[in-house]
Amino acid sequence: MNSEVHTFGGVTATLYYMDLSSEVPRHQHPVEHTTQVIKGQTWVEIFDGRESAIEMNEGDFLVLPANIDHRIRCTSDHTIILNMIESGAAQIDYVPPGRPGDFAPSGVVALHEDQP
User: Fold this and answer.
1) Which of 30, 71, 86, 100 has the fewest CB atoms in 10 Å of its CB?
2) What angle do CA 99, 101, 104 make, to 5 degrees?
3) What is the pLDDT of residues 46-63, one digit of tens each?
4) CA distance 90 to 23
5) pLDDT class for 87, splitting at 50, 70, 90?
């Protein structure tokens, strides 16, 4: 796995270039952040006492609350993941509804490219 980190205007954007079976190890962030699949497929595993996993495909993204342990596991070659974190991120007032089952425990929201 390779990565690039870019910081601009108080936002840190990390691009992860991953292949099948590679992973971003279990971790958490002190602020809310987004994870988007630019290319390929992954599973994001959430560890909040009610462990769950969300499949993510190209174009999908997640909004993860602060202080939630999670891990990203790549399920295809040549996958690109974009992680964006803003210092002091504001709470999201509105998130368009996801497909059934996409609202995971702990306020994690999965948004998919094919949503209206």
Assistant:
1) 100
2) 115
3) 988 888 899 999 999 899
4) 28
5) low
- In this prediction the pTM is 0.72
Residues in the chain: 116
Work out the average pLDDT over 4-25.
88
d(CA 53, CA 62): 12
Beta strands in 1-116 (DSSP E): 2-8, 11-18, 23-27, 33-39, 41-47, 52-57, 61-64, 69-74, 79-86, 109-111
**Which of residues 2 and 103 earns the better pLDDT score?**
2
For the chain, give the percent of residues with pLDDT over 90: 39
Burial 4-43 (b: 16+ CB within 10 A, else e): eeeeeeeeeebebbbeeebebeeeebeebbbbbbeebbbe
Task: Report the distance separating Cα 108 and Cα 111, nearest Å.
Answer: 10
Please give the domain boundaries of the chain with CATH numbers for all domains.
2-90 (2.60.120.10)
Biggest distance spanned by C-alpha atoms of the chain? 35
